[in-house]
Each structure stands twice: as C-alpha cells, then as structure tokens.
Design a protein that fits this description.
Number of strands: 6
Largest sheet: 4 strands, antiparallel
Number of helices: 6
CATH class of the largest domain: Alpha Beta
CATH topology of the largest domain: Muramoyl-pentapeptide Carboxypeptidase, domain 2
Order of helices and strands: HHHEEHEHEHEE
Length: 349
C-alpha cells in the first residue's frame, strides 16, 4: 500500500512538473510570438515612415522643378519681349540717325544715341538660350535708355527744323516781290510757263560776262574756260555763261527738258563775277552768298526764273529734280529742309 501511494505521489509530481514545463514553454512561445509581432510592427512602421519621407521628398523635388520650369518660362518670355522691343528701337534709331545727320544744333545728342545703340546691341548679343534674370534686366534697362536718347534726338531735330523754317520765312519776307532780273527772251520758257517781269529794276541782277584775263578764281573765270548757252540771253543781250563742262551737260539736260515740255529751261542767271557778287550781297544780304564763295562765280550754277511753273511741286521743278542729276545738275533745295531757293541748280559733275 505504501508503495502504491508513493507511486501515485510520484506520478502526480511528474505530471505537475510536465504541466508546468508545458506552461512555461507555451509562455515562452507566446512571448516570442509577441516579440516577433512587435518587431514586425516596428519594421512596418519604419517602412511606412520611410515611404512617407520619400514621397514628401519627391513632392518637394517635383514642386522645385515646376517652379524652376515656370521661372525659366517667365524669363524666356521676358527675354523674347525685351529682345523684340530692343530690336525695334535699334532699327528706329538707325533710321533716326540717318535722317538727322547735319540737322541738329548740337551733335552731342546724336553721339549719345549712337552710344545707347551700342549698349543695347551689346545686351542683345549677351543673351543665351536660357536667359538669366540679370540679362533680362540689363537688356530692359538698355533699351529704355535707348528710347530716352532717341527722344532727345527727335526733340533736337524738331528744334532745328523749326529754326530752319523760321530762317527761311525771314529770308523770304526780306526778298523783293517778283523776279530779280528784267525780261525773258522768246526762247526762254514758253507760253505755259512765262510770266511778265515784276519787281524793282534797281535791284535787278544780270548774268556776268567772263573776261579774257580771268585768273580762274571765284568770280574771275577766264573766257577760255567758259562756254555760252544758245538760249535765254538776258535783256541786256548777255548770254548765259557756264564752265565748259557744265555748259555741255546743261545743253544735254535742256534737250531732254525741251522734249518733255516743248520749251527751253527758263534760265535767269548763270555766271556771276566777283564784283556782281559784291553787289548781290549789298542788295540781298544773307540771302546772297559771301562774295568769292558762290558757285555762280565758278560758272557752276544757274537760277531759273522765279515763275510758278518752276516753284516747289510744279511739273517742271519735279522733272528737273528727278532728271537733273542724270546730267550732273542738282537742286540743293530738294534735299535741304527749309531752303527756299527752288530756282537754284548746281553742277556737281
């Protein structure tokens, strides 16, 4: 009985030990599973955080790229606009410089415009395919300065034109009315152009006759260097004298003029001696050239009669201005703004 009881006790103890061992093992397994689950959860959280950080970084990079692209587009558009405006102003400034050559009181404004043009062209040349903000800013500033310089030239040109017009009006007001010489021959002009002589005979000028002993200086041309024209002798019977080459060119021009209008060019005055230049200066002041400087004194100028048929805008004037240069004869008034002498033509060869 005692042995049986002891066996029972041993069995009970062993069973208890096994149960406790199993429970311990189960606890350890559960703890391991819980630890593994916690580690997996932590890793998943880390991966989620890493993915979120990567997505945030990618979003920031995309936003930065978008901003950069937008800025580049804005700069490209700004450069394109500034380049177009600068090019237009450069073209206009080039024309303005050509049109105002010799037609401003102070050439410094034209020099300033040329310098501004060089600056603008330099800013244009500095442009790149991907313009930077400072390049756009420099170009904008340069063409703005170019516009200011162009405005200054235009203002100076307008002032010069006003002064020329005023001087021309004063010269015209100081002139006696009508022609300065008396009478045109039957071979001078024609029915469609002729006007009866008017004006003060005391202020009449006449073509001079070159002398045999002239020394060739202005107003002292020798007859050997001169040739008289075959038409338009003045009322004193003096022929119109020109230097021989100028006379030959005038004959050819007159032939073409007569073919067009059926009459000779109405020549009032041609060669003018030094003494007659002095008289002209005494009579007409600033309207007459300084003695010894007139192209008339070299036999290289003619004046038509101051008839309406030869005035600015007339058919004869326009024809002579257009075709005279083909024969070496030009009208300065056609190119000099404010010059009232539509009747004056010069031989340039």
């Amino acid at each position: 009985m005692a042995v049986a009881a002891l066996a029972t006790v041993l069995v009970t103890v062993l069973v208890g030990v096994q149960l406790r061992a199993s429970a311990a093992e189960a606890g350890r397994a559960h703890a391991a599973e819980q630890a593994a689950a916690e580690e997996a959860s932590a890793q998943q959280a880390e991966r989620a955080a890493a993915e979120a950080a990567a997505q945030a970084a990618a979003a920031q990079e995309a936003a930065a790229q978008e901003r950069a692209a937008t800025e580049a587009g804005v700069l490209a558009l700004a450069w394109s606009t500034a380049s177009r405006l600068a090019t237009d102003r450069l073209d206009a400034a080039t024309t303005l410089l050509a049109d105002t050559d010799g037609e401003v009181a102070d050439n410094g404004v034209r020099d300033a415009l040329a310098a501004a043009m060089a600056d603008t062209q330099g800013a244009l040349d500095a442009g790149t395919e991907a313009p930077q903000a400072q390049q756009v800013s420099a170009l904008s500033a340069s063409y703005a300065a170019l516009g200011t310089a162009a405005d200054a030239v235009e203002a100076a040109h307008a002032s010069w034109q006003a002064a020329q017009a005023k001087a021309a009006a004063e010269r015209k007001a100081s002139r006696p009315s009508g022609t300065w010489t008396i009478g045109a021959g039957a071979d001078c002009g024609g029915k469609a152009s002729y006007e009866a002589p008017t004006g003060d005979p005391a202020k009449a000028l006449y073509t001079s006759v070159p002398t045999e002993d002239g020394d060739g200086s202005n107003g002292h041309m020798p007859r050997s260097a001169m040739t008289p024209l075959s038409w338009c002798a003045n009322s004193l019977g003096y022929q119109q004298w020109l230097r021989t080459d100028a006379a030959a060119a005038m004959v050819r021009l007159n032939d073409a003029f007569r073919a067009e209008f059926g009459e000779n060019i109405a020549i009032d005055l041609s060669y003018r001696s030094y003494d007659d230049q002095v008289r002209a200066k005494q009579l007409f002041g600033g309207l007459a050239a300084t003695p010894g400087t007139s192209n008339h004194g070299l036999g290289l100028a003619i004046d038509t009669y101051e008839w309406k048929a030869y005035d600015f805008g007339s058919a004869r004037y326009e024809w002579l201005v257009a075709h005279g240069p083909d024969y070496g004869w030009v009208c300065p008034a056609a190119t000099e703004k404010g010059n009232p002498e539509y009747w004056h033509f010069e031989y340039t060869g």
